[in-house]
TrEMBL record:
The keyword Repeat applies. This is Dyslexia-associated protein KIAA0319-like protein. Its main location: membrane. SUPFAM superfamilies: PKD domain. Keywords: Cell membrane, Glycoprotein, Membrane, Repeat, Transmembrane, Transmembrane helix. It is found in: Cell membrane. One of its GO terms (cellular component) is cytoplasmic vesicle. Residues 258-277, 355-375 are annotated as: Disordered. Residues 161-234 form the PKD domain. One of its GO terms (biological process) is neuron migration. InterPro entries: Ig-like_fold, KIAA0319-like, PKD/Chitinase_dom, PKD_dom, PKD_dom_sf. CDD domains: PKD.
């Protein structure tokens, strides 16, 4: 207040409210009082439209997620927001468009496509404001399949078959078709293939060499992937057989036959045949069961014989061994002298007969010599 003792009073920094003032006036023997009220009213309000806020302004989701929310509750006004109204202004074709009168818009059952929603808010003075929110709904992401033909394989003849497995191939929807084929680098290979449109491929009649196979998998959307696998067929690791004709033999006449035993011959797989032949020695020998492991030989004479055994395995590899048979003369045993005892002689008989006829020899042809024993 300024000029409290003057005719006029100046008021400043007034705020809204009711003020009461009194004034006293004194003059030539006179006195007077007066009162006055001053009312300060608030400044007249000019309504501002509400401020619309949506969150998020744009969002993107992918199926199988088919629901989301858009928040308009953060919209403001200089007085008060009294209503919210959502309207779908753009979206995929379907039975019903979205419409709601809530601060937060809840969306469900969404289908792939692009959506635009309008939010209009109204304040206490009826003023409105609007803004847009956009939403993109993507289809289910379909990743391409991953083919897996399995690890490389090695087999060795005589095995000539194998099964390849593509069961480790993958797809996000587990809906795959399979197709096996020879890769271009193996197109001239000859073999038998079964199950070319199944996860497992059966191979047979393979020959020595490298085979490369290609597995192509296709998903329900037509997306493909390929994988290769190599099968190496190694030659048979076959060692030749080892023939064993047995130890050397010695015979003494009159024994003129023996057996030849090759049963100790061996092979890393299997011996398929045996054959005995005489390779040296006197003629006239007969071999029985000459195509078996154990043979019989007869008609042997004095001398040295050599017999050869040849064995053959299943891969036609051969081996030979020899055995020597020596036939010796019958041994000459010393003669055996036998004298029959003589009956006693009584004089006047002066003669006696001594009999050595019972003496023997293994070959006969004895000669006799009688001598008197002086002892």
């Amino acid at each position: 207040m300024e000029g409290q003792k003057s005719r006029t009073l100046k008021l400043s920094k007034l705020t809204v409210g009711l003020y009461e003032f009194g004034v006293t006036v004194d003059g030539d023997g006179a006195h007077g009082e007066g009162f006055v009220n001053v009312t300060v009213k608030p400044e007249p309000r000019v309504n501002k439209p509400p401020v619309v806020v949506v969150s998020p302004e744009f969002q993107e989701i992918s199926l199988p997620t088919s629901s989301t929310v858009i928040d308009g509750s953060q919209s403001t006004d200089d007085d008060k927001v009294v209503s919210w109204h959502w309207e779908e202004v753009k979206g995929p074709l379907r039975d019903e468009k979205v419409s709601a009168d809530t601060p937060i818009l809840t969306l469900t059952g969404l289908v792939p496509g692009n959506y635009t929603f309008s939010l209009t808010v109204t304040d206490s003075d009826g003023a409105t404001s609007s803004t847009l929110a956009k939403l993109s709904v993507n289809k289910v992401k379909d990743y391409g399949p991953v083919a897996n033909a399995g690890p490389n394989q090695v087999i060795q003849l005589p095995r000539n078959s194998i099964t390849l497995s593509g069961n480790q191939s993958k797809d996000d929807h587990e809906d795959l078709s399979y197709e096996w084929s020879l890769s271009p680098e193996s197109k001239d290979k000859v073999l038998e293939m079964q199950g070319v449109r199944t996860p497992t491929l059966q191979l047979s009649a393979m020959q020595e060499g490298d085979y490369t196979f290609q597995l192509t998998v296709t998903d329900s959307a037509g997306q493909q992937d390929t994988s290769k696998v190599t099968v190496i067929v190694q030659p048979e690791n076959n060692k030749p057989p080892v023939a064993d004709a047995g130890p050397e033999k010695e015979l003494t006449l009159p024994v003129d036959r023996t057996t030849l035993d090759g049963s100790k011959s061996r092979d890393d797989q299997k011996i398929s045949s045996y054959h005995w032949t005489k390779t040296s020695g006197p003629d006239g020998v007969k071999i029985e069961k000459e195509d078996s492991a154990v043979a019989s030989v007869s008609g042997l004479e004095l001398g040295s014989y050599e017999f050869t055994l040849t064995v053959t395995d299943e891969r036609n590899l051969r081996s030979s061994d020899t055995v020597t048979v020596i036939v010796r003369e019958e041994k000459d045993q010393p003669p055996v002298a036998r004298v029959l005892s003589s009956p006693p002689v009584s004089l006047p008989v002066r003669t006696a007969v001594l009999d050595g006829s019972r003496s023997t020899d293994d070959k006969g042809g004895l000669s006799f010599l009688w001598t008197r024993d002086e002892s």
